[in-house]
Structures are given as structure tokens and as C-alpha cells.
Amino acid sequence: MLDILKAAILGIVEGITEWLPISSTGHMILVDEFMSLNVSKAFMDMFLVVIQLGAILAVVALNFDRLNPFSKRKTYLKKRQTISLWGKVIVGCIPAAVIGLAFNDYMEEHFMNAQVVAFTLILYGVLFIIVENYNKHRTPSIKDIDYLDYKTALIIGFFQVLSLVPGTSRSGSTILGGILFGTSRVVATEYTFFLAIPVMFGASALKLFKFGFNYTFEEVILLLVGMVVAFIVSIISIKFLLRYVRTNDFKAFGWYRIILGLIVFVYFYFQG
To answer: 72: how many CB neighbours lie within 10 A of its CB?
Structure first.
């Protein structure tokens, strides 16, 4: 019963931190330090990735009609725009697919530690503040995701590769890339959500394949609890962030990252 409660808490953390640009890895490291599940390391590594399925299903559920090119309610033009959107998502995923598959295991093995996570939390926190100050008097050239061009989509995809470094935040790196290359905050945020669909489905499938399909009943329950909670909390987080970015910048998240990075660094420094 205690492990089920812990799985639910991890689902809450995933549902919040996967979409807000504050690094799910940094938060998971802290949560895992204080309340690890009573499972094998292999299962825990797989669990932390696969519960992302719950989070990504929230994006699909909230945008099902928008992402469905076969909807009978859409005009021919709208169907073309939806197909084009999926094309831009696929283009944006190419860098992560090529570079991520080649270096993901290496990055996890050599850079998955508290020092690196703390450094990247602080670094990207500072970058968010700098970019928002730079962006203050600029007018975005792309204010609607339907007008996002393939070149910009690919550039944002390369920014997504930066999230291979633990603590970076996948959403944080892609939102920064979008803002720097002319998208509005809303467009950068929406594209980040859609870009996550194939990436996170692929990452979850890869982890499931590597782990195998030999689960105990308890492990299945833990996975389902984590995924369902992540799904529910993700719906709330996504709606919140889309409302927030319409009238606010990302500086608050930058300061939060800096504070969290300092906490992670100090805590593990004295632990070590």
C-alpha cells in the first residue's frame, strides 16, 4: 500500500514537471532520495520513463480533434493544416531520433548525477531570464502554430536534443529554442506539447522493450497508478501553462530552476 502511495506521488511529480519547464529529472532525483519504491533498479528506471505515457496521453486527449486529420468536422483546409502539423512534428523529432538513440545511454551513464542536474537547472534558469529580457521588446514573427515553418520546426527539434543532458528539461529547451527563433510563447509551448508525443511514446516503448514483459502483479499496479495519476495531473498542468503563457513570461520558472538547482547542489554536497 505504501508503494502505491509513492507511485501516485511520483505520478503527480511527473504530471507537473514534464510540462512546466522546470526539469522532471531534477525533481525525480529529489523525490527518489526521500521515498524510493521497493523495487529493482531496472524496474525503477523503466517506471520513471513509462509513466510518461500517462502524461503524453493527456496531450492527445486534450487535442484529439485538433490532431486528428480524419475528423469529419474539419474542412478540407483544416485537414491539410493538421497533416502539415504532423509533418512539422516529425521533422522536429528527427534530431532527437538520430542523436538521442546514439547517445542516450551514454549520457545517462556519465551525466546522470546530482552535480550535472544542479548545474543544468541553474544554467537554463539563467538562460530563461536572459532570453525573456532579450525578447521583451521583440515582436514574434510566428503567432499561430499553423504558420510555423519546417525550418523553424527543425531548429526547435535540435534544441530538444539539449535535453539529453539530465536536468535540462525537454519542454524548457524547446520553448527557449522557439522563442529565440521567432515564435510566440504560446506557439512554442503548443509545439513543445505536440513534439513530445512521438518522442515520449518512442522512449517508453524502448524502455518497455529493454525491460521485457515479465511483470509481477504488484509492478503492474504500480505502473498503472503512476500512469493514471500522471495523466490526470498533466491535464491540469497543460491547461495551466497554456493560460499562464498568454499573459506572462517564463522568468518565474527561471528563478524557480535556479533556487531548485542550488537546493540540489547544497543537499547532495553535504550528503556526499
So the answer is: 6
The answer for residues whose C-beta is within 8 angstroms of residue 85's C-beta and 6 or more apart is 67, 145, 146, 194
CA 104 to chain CA mean position, Å: 15
CA distance 263 to 15: 22
**Cα-flanking dihedrals φ and ψ of residue 18, to 5°?**
-65, -30
Query: What are the C-alpha distances in Å from 135 to residues 51, 147, 168?
Result: 35, 20, 21
- What residue spans define the domains of the chain? 2-271
Q: Which residues on adjacent β-strands are paired with residue 142?
A: 183
Query: Per-residue pLDDT for 32 more than 80?
Result: no
What is the spatial distance between Cα 218 and Cα 89, in angstroms, rounded to a whole number?
A: 36
The set of cell numbers assigned to 49 is: 520513463
**pTM of the prediction?**
0.91
Q: Hey, which residues does 113 pair with through a beta bridge?
A: none
What was the pLDDT predicted at 272?
63
Q: In which residue are the cell numbers 496531450 written?
A: 59
Contact predicate 21/250, CB 8 Å: yes
